[in-house]
Amino acid sequence: MDILHYQKDFINFLESKKWVHEPKNLYEPIDYIIKLGGKRMRPILTLMAADIFSGGYEKAMSAALAVEVFHNFTLIHDDIMDAAPLRRGKATVHEKWDTNTGILSGDAMLIMAYQYFEDYDPIIFQNLAKLFSKTALEVCDGQQLDVDFETRNDVTIDEYINMIRLKTSVLVAAALKMGAIVAETSDENASLIYDFGLNLGLAFQLQDDYLDTFGDPKTFGKQIGGDIIENKKTYLYLKSLEVANKDDREKLLSFYNQNIQDNSAKIIEVTKIFELNNIPDLIKEQIQNYTEKAFETLSSMNITEQSKQGLKNFGLWLMNRSV
């Protein structure tokens, strides 16, 4: 199990596809977002799972591409909804083109993702499409909850964890299960690898929350403090409200409930409240917690010890990432 090997082969497969055709204004934004780079984490998971359960991953390339195209579709639409200027350090699709183009190109990507399942036999196709439809709808559920939270002041940490499970984790879990489906492994193995991915996805998103405020702008690829500017009720914010003293809570609520023109000052002040209340350490504990929960599922999985260690190494790498 060599993550860099999967990544290299997947990128070669992705680059072998011709993304731009007529009408160019529909497909050039697709080519742009697909080639912006990123870790390609989700398609790598699909290839990794197929390899673990069948000893080969080439046949999982189309499923991996479906996952990557769908993920990038969600990024285009998320960036529009968040009015985000940057994605992976470059202009977002709606900034480079316009909002209408972003909406339509994203719609086309969702349809294209389904088409890649047509490369499989009917039973595998049906199982992939069924999982994919369920996952896509859950991602929409998560996105709507995220939007709802913006206008609520009573969001709980449990509600937030459920939202990120839907918005982020289910796609990580589905990416792994798709590899298992293509490999035609047992239903039990497919369910266990899904649970592994679900917990790993929660750790991944909490790490993303942490990096959004405390990451290095040179490596993170997104605007540092973006969640603070957008008044996102992340784990950092919700945990602060739970543990902070009255003064800090009132300051935090004040920052998040009014339109402040000086974003840089807001980021500095809110970050200071997080640090004073030990929030960076508390979120790291949760990242560790969900990573360990993911690792617990490995003991029941009917795979080699070497494969279990490979999945564990991948989880540890994700937990300690800086991008």
Distance between the termini: 22 Å
The CATH superfamily is identified as Farnesyl Diphosphate Synthase
What fraction, in percent, of the residue positions are helical? over 70%
CATH architecture: Orthogonal Bundle
Total tally of structural domains: 1
Question: According to CATH, what is the class?
Answer: Mainly Alpha
C-alpha geometry: globular
Description:
By secondary structure, the protein is mostly helical. The protein has one domain (3-319): Orthogonal Bundle (Farnesyl Diphosphate Synthase), CATH 1.10.600.10. The chain is built from 16 helices and 2 strands. The chain has helices at residues 3-15, 24-34, 41-54, 61-82, 93-96, 99-115, 122-149, 157-183, 187-214, 217-220, 226-229, 235-243, 246-256, 263-276, 279-298, 305-319; strands at residues 86-87, 90-91. A two-stranded antiparallel ribbon has the order 1-2. Strand 1 (86-87) and strand 2 form a beta hairpin. The longest helix has 28 residues, at 122-149.
Topology readout:
Layout: H1 3-15, H2 24-34, H3 41-54, H4 61-82, E1 86-87, E2 90-91, H5 93-96, H6 99-115, H7 122-149, H8 157-183, H9 187-214, H10 217-220, H11 226-229, H12 235-243, H13 246-256, H14 263-276, H15 279-298, H16 305-319
Helix pairs in contact: 1-3, 2-6, 3-4, 3-8, 4-6, 4-8, 7-8, 8-9, 9-15, 12-13, 12-15, 15-16
